[in-house]
Each structure stands twice: as structure tokens, then as C-alpha cells.
Amino acid sequence: MRLVIKVGTSTLAHPSGKLNIRRVEKICKVLSDLKNAGNNVVLVSSGAIGMGMGKLNLASRPSDMSEKQAAAAVGQCELMYTYDKLFKDYNHTVAQILVTGDDIENVNRRNCFKDTVFKLIELGVIPVINENDTVSTQEISVGDNDTLAAIVAVNIKADLLILLSDIDGLYTADPNKDGKAELINEVNEINDKIYSLADGAVSKFGTGGMATKIKAAKICTDNGIDLVILNGDYPEFLYKAVAGERAGTRFIGKK
Known about the structure:
Elements: E1 2-7, H1 9-12, H2 21-36, E2 40-45, H3 48-56, H4 65-88, E3 94-99, H5 101-105, H6 107-122, E4 126-131, H7 145-155, E5 160-165, E6 186-187, H8 192-196, H9 210-222, E7 226-231, H10 237-243, E8 249-251
Parallel strand pairs: 1-2, 1-5, 2-4, 3-4, 5-7, 6-8
Antiparallel strand pairs: 7-8
Helix pairs in contact: 3-4, 7-9
């Protein structure tokens, strides 16, 4: 299978903004194993700004564009160093690809991006894709990595997109406020009811929320690709999602 895995900042980092080493190690181990099993793995990783915040001892996500870009520049170095080191332990090579909205919208740039990803896959490399927050502005940004991951999945004709987040999946209500909220295991149609379940909450380190995940699911399912939301606390659930077993919330692609 051709898999796109998106890892959110809240999965990669502790509330302090510092790297959650144990969790990231588990994620890299499982992804390496999935690749060893014959799957093509593409990783879309948030975390540059969050890690930069941790290294710069910033208490909250920067609102000033230049400070945001500075945090991303600092954090991206540590992010890729970490992936390179951890995947190397399992004999896998990673490559960094940073993109902006312009790279997606412009046909020539988009084709170059796809060619690069396909060549890296052919060479047995794990592409690690992130938005280029060091140069992105509001006008040329994708906006969030859930959407970016969906765009990547569609462009490389992935079989499955998995979003690792800080929640088990989509619930019938906010589980933090409603003790009767139930996890929705499968969504066959993204309608007004599904949209209404997105509360738009975000972490202080990330830009995503359930709303962006449902948006990503809509992009994928409209193009025949399944999308699964999983809790990043349990990287071993990736095995179940890839095998088509019940795990998190699966949005079924239109065939």
C-alpha cells in the first residue's frame, strides 16, 4: 500500500513544547516496520514551530509572522535531525520536502513535487513533508498540515491517509464535556451532521482541529481515498488501520 501518515504537533511534543521522545521513537519504529512489510510510507509532519517554541522557551504560539518563521527555522532543524537519527536505527533514509501553497497551486511546481516524491519512494526513501513555515505567508500558505496531508495523498494517489492526533477519533459529542459521547468508528458520508461535530478546538502548539480533519477527509474521500483519524498516543494502532481493522474513525472513500 502507499501510505501517507500525518503526525500533529500535539503528538510529537509534550505540553511544554519539548519533544516527546518516547512517542516519536514508537512512531518511527512502527512506520519502519510498515515499510519493511512492503508498504510505501510518506510522512507529513507538523512540529517545526512547536519544537522551535520549546527550544526558544516561548510560552505560546507566536502571532507575529517573523517570530513564527524564526521558530519554524529553529524547530525544523531539530525535527529532521530527530527523524534522521531514529529512522536510521531501522536502516531507513529520510528526505525533507518543504512546500508552500504556491508549490501546490502552480502546475509546474506541483508536477516537480510529485516527481520528487515518486523518485524518493522508488529509491526506498521516506519523504518527510512539511509546510515551509520559514517563508510561508498568509497568501501562499496551505494553512494546516491536515489539509496538506490530504493534498499530498491525492496527488501521489495514496491508498490511505492516517492522521495521528491527540484524540481517538470523531465523537458524537465533545468527550471532554459529555460523558455519553461515543466514538464514531466509520463515516460513509460527510454531511452537515458530521461537519457540526467539529468544534474547531486547537492546541496551543498546533493549527489543526477536528474541523481541519473533516476537511481533509472530504478531500480524500471525494478522490476515493480512505482517511483514518487515530490517537497518536498509540502508534501500534497504525497496524490495525493499515489492515482495515477497526481503529479510530475511518472515513470511507467514494469508489
